Amino acid sequence: MFSGNGTNLKIKLLTDIMDPKRLAREFYVRDVLVVAPELPGKYMVIKLPDGSLTRFKVTEVEAYRGAEDQACHAYKGRTSRTEIMYSEGGSLYIYLIYGMYWMLNIVTGGKDNPQAVLIRGVEDHPGPGILTKSLGINKSFYGEDLVESQRIWFEDRGLVQPVKNGPRIGIDYAGEYWKSRPWRYFL
DNA sequence: TCAGTGATTAGG
DNA sequence: CTAATCACTGAG
Length: 187
Fold this sequence. Notes:
The chain is an alpha+beta fold. The protein is about 20% helix and about 25% strand. The chain has helices at about 5-20, 25-30, 30-35, 130-135, 175-180, and strands at about 45, 55-65, 90-95, 100-105, 115-120, 125, 150-155, 165, 185. Strands 1, 2, 3, 4, 5, 6, 7, 8 and 9 form a 9-stranded antiparallel β-sheet that branches. About 35% of the residues are buried. The structure holds a DNA duplex.
């Protein structure tokens, strides 16, 4: 008769009342090419290592779209590192690059559709490795659920700014076609 | 332009 | 076990 889970609906309604700005599951469970261009201008809220809750405007992101995208980690198949990308959108995919820098990604789309958005920059912290280093984001954030987490989430604070786009950065290993996809979005 | 740095992965 | 790879950054 009624669809859905009653307990989850109750939690969602209470969450909306207490925290109306937090982006809900529905935001993330859409194609990455719909989600990614909507992220610049949204706010990342994070509990910093000193315990303070701080907001940063998202300035630059990139979309990585499924097993056919030669630039996407899922192109090489399902591994323990990329496992979280195969879950329903709304959690974090974190990995280490060049032995030094943690990369912050938001999983998008439905289950078994491996997609993610790389957060390349937030205000005052341009650069994907710079922002994670200065905000204390590391592997302990792997799999964090942005809908329920009390230490990191994203908000729509009503800001609307024009979003530009262009090719993704640092993916020379991908073929010309995938290198030229204009899937980087920035303010 | 190029070295630093180490987790992750495939392969033997 | 080995070796290759790597969605980056900062120095020169």
